[in-house]
Structure to design on (217 residues):
């Protein structure tokens, strides 16, 4: 197939850039496609599962969620074989843990109701990395703040008494000596690339490359 195309066919360019020529689109075709969220189980997680299978419908790519070939909808609804990598039990158990047939019917109804609704979970997902009730979100924030504070304390304790950068780079003999000192500053004393770059007068990408090479020697 590749040999039958003319050399100036521009195979990559149409696939990569034409969809992005629309107003408000930037970068390559698959840029920014992945997102991750912390989601509270049961009602909120169900809403996210419905949001995912309805995305192709809302985007106008298909008329029904089951028409999207990469969707898990049909397998979850029991209308096609479930691939080994797909777990559907927890979703179906939310509708009826005792009857798989009834659970699938209620799941299909649940998704269909989402098509007729305006707004919903997508508005929350667009702006929040945590999706859940007020108590769940508050608990997460408290744990995150405590973890951040703990990391800051450990960092301060680890680098107590470390030499200043200007002392580390005093009387550098040559480039190899300088690179080894940058590696030491970064790995042993916890200085950032930006801090080392500011001290040495180098660009931080140069510092990063030098540290990587010095670590191999």
């Amino acid at each position: 197939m590749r040999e039958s195309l003319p050399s100036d066919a521009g195979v990559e360019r149409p696939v990569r850039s034409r969809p992005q020529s629309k107003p408000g689109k930037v970068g390559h075709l698959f840029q920014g496609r992945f997102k991750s969220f912390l989601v509270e189980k049961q009602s909120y997680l169900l809403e996210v599962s419905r949001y995912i299978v309805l995305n192709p419908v809302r985007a106008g790519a298909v008329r029904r969620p089951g028409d999207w070939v990469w969707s898990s909808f049909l397998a979850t609804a029991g209308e096609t074989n479930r691939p080994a990598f797909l777990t559907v039990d927890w979703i179906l158990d939310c509708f009826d843990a005792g009857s798989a047939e009834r659970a699938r019917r209620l799941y299909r109804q649940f998704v269909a109701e989402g098509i007729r609704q305006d707004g919903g979970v997508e508005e929350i997902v667009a702006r929040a990395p945590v999706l859940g009730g007020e108590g769940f979100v508050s608990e997460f924030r408290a744990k995150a703040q405590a973890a951040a504070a703990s990391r800051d304390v450990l960092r301060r304790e680890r680098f107590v008494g470390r030499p200043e950068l200007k002392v580390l780079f005093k009387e550098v003999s040559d480039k190899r000596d300088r690179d080894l000192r940058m590696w030491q500053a970064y790995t042993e004393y916890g200085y950032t690339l930006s801090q080392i770059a500011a001290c040495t007068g180098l660009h931080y990408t140069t510092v990063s490359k030098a540290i990587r090479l010095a670590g191999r020697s």
Notes: The CA atoms of residues 6 and 64 lie 38 Å apart.
